[in-house]
Amino acid sequence: MSQDQKTALSLYDHLPTFITDDPPSLTSEQRMALLARYYPDYRPEGKTTLRVGPNKGNVVPEEIANILETRSRLLHPEKIERPVEPDIEVDLLIVGGGGAGITAALFAKETGASVLLATKLRIGDSNTVMAEGGIQVALGDDDSPAQHLKDAYRGGHFTGDPELLSVLVKEGPEVISWLVRKGVLFDRDAHGSLALRKGGGTTRPRLISAKDYTGLELVRVLKEDLLNSGIPLWEFSPAVELLEGPDGSCAGAVLLDVDSGKLKWVKARSVLLSTGGTGRLHIGGFATSNHFGATGDGLGMAYRMGSPLLHMESFQYHPTGVIYPSEMAGMLITEAVRGAGARLYNKEGKRFVNELETRDIVASAIIRECSEGRGVRTPAGHFGVYLDLAAIDRDMGEGTVARRFPNILKLMSKHDVDCSTHPILVYPTLHYQNGGISADKEGRTPIKHLYVAGETTGGLHGKNRLMGNSLLEVLVFGHRVGLAAAREGMSRKPFSWQEVGFGHVKRFERELDSEFHGVERPEGPLLFPDYRRKTSGDNA
Amino acid sequence: MFKYEKPDNARMIKVGINGKDWSVPEGLTMIQAMWYTGHEVIHGIGCLGGVCGACAAVYRMPGDFHLHNALACQTLVRENMAFSLIPSFPSQRADYKIEAIADTKEELFKLYPESATCRNCNACTEVCPQGIDVRDAVWRSVFGDFKGVTEETMSCVMCGLCVSRCIAEMAPHEIALYARRAYGSQELKFPDNLLHRMEKIQSGDFDVELSRLLSLSPEMLKSECEAK
User: Fold this and answer.
1) What does the pLDDT look like over B125-136, one tens digit per residue?
2) Which of B39, B131, B194 sits opposite A194 (nearest CB)?
3) Could you tell me if A110 lies within 8 Å of chain B, comparing CB atoms?
4) Do residue B120 and residue B149 come from a single domain?
């Protein structure tokens, strides 16, 4: 047993007595004050003002500025020799093979369009596959799409886009039916209906799930259909630059084959960016629950082309990321455990927030406890609070944790923590990019023939997202945008390869030169986070 | 860049990575040990959360003839462990459209005829990093107990390690995926609550209320949404 684990046991030897009394309830004013003081989005440190591009003047985290105000990875694009012909020509290029990209590809194919799906790692590698908790869809007798909209709008502190939300809530059931017919195994109730559970910030039970493997179950099925669809798939081939066509439109992209190092030139009549979120930027030094590839590549490429972003100062720090054992830092413990009755306790064994408040409120309350000396110190010097799942088995019967949350139990047990009897130490983890590229109901950006879907978009959720609305988003908008982008690509006026180029990159580089004269800027897109130790190795 | 902190005063241990010996602090996962020693990992990395199946690995411990398997993002390195990643293992996958199959049990033998050739060696079960009884799931598939397969294999991350060991050369994870889809798509009744909600949406039952909400001023919408 390692030193780390021994310390853990001693840490567990000195657990406080957990006092189950209800925490103080909060008024609206108290909630806003808590957010203003502790939520990372509202803290002044680590922020900067954008100096170039469509969002010039906006204040965003430095890590975001570092993927937006970037030099092209192609360096001097005007000097790069464009091949005589593109490597491939398609109606629709989809960049990013997560939930939104795969869904879009499957529906786009049905229109008869020629589609290419390119992705940075393997198909399905994305934040979608990691989603544990479920999908919100208004199915209960006491529920309706309108009620769903109200909850989502309130949950986003009235900053979400009601029109986009109305699409989300209304088209949810249809896309869930599509999945059920494909054999996606959502949990059922005793009558064979989809079992509905309650998530934070909602007024009705509305979460459907596949145990705590919801994203995995979706991706396993959709990935198989994609592989059987005949749609060309280029894996390990991230986009590194968009191509500009007539009148500032989007006309394709340059991809990088990461194994050969060669560039692949794609002429496309429509381009859909479904490149996902930004957790791997570790904004504010937070750990993240995100996939290895979540570096916001689409944001930078779209921004360079002049596509405005919304709410790029707004991120979701999921309240319950593992903070100990340290090698698991950032890994998510689903909010569904709190829905099922798990409790949060500080070092003194007191509850300090209603566990079913929205994610930002719970996260702020945990940060408050830790910054005011009521957090538990881990051997690596981090602070966290206790998340007690044992309460679930006490309230709902022995074995509930094992039945409902087998994945959490399995993962924690690999690190010698039995979370059905012992609390988990948690601290907020960077989980979701609330903002992103601005688009309409069909995913259209202001750049003609450039479309977006999934986490890389902004507007829908506003400044906070409720659990289960992002899986619904990738499905509903993957469907809509896939169809629109394919149809509008097919009906586009023909243009020649000679009309395609890097005009937008040159314009952006000039802007960078004038604003940052002499100051070096990073290259973008980042593509991969680098955790390698920079000093020389210890070859034994 | 954020760092996965090594524990205070971690002891240095010897590990073999892709056949070369290195010294790394105790308390790191296999992937973190690769980063620590300067390896760039692109193939063989994914969610870093134990669900995507990208980081299958094989390892041995000294003095032990057993060959072990694991997910590299979830497995801590130990003194004298020797490991390598198996980022991808080739496997055969059937081409089908689950909604269109008339007899899913019979079809299994057309799509995956090798599924009936299991020789009960149990290597697939022993290799599974998720602890699934893979051998049993294969037999349940063959006998048409797709519900049983579903219950047994929900945690499958499709890493393909079972394929690497199967002496009958089948792909148990693909067979189980087929069985689960057949069960969900054809054996389970289409959910009533979803069916009824679809009917109501198609007949426009919710349109008036949604349009009304969208017609409200931001202030009115806010005050209406504030009431829980």
Assistant:
1) 999 999 999 999
2) B194
3) no
4) yes
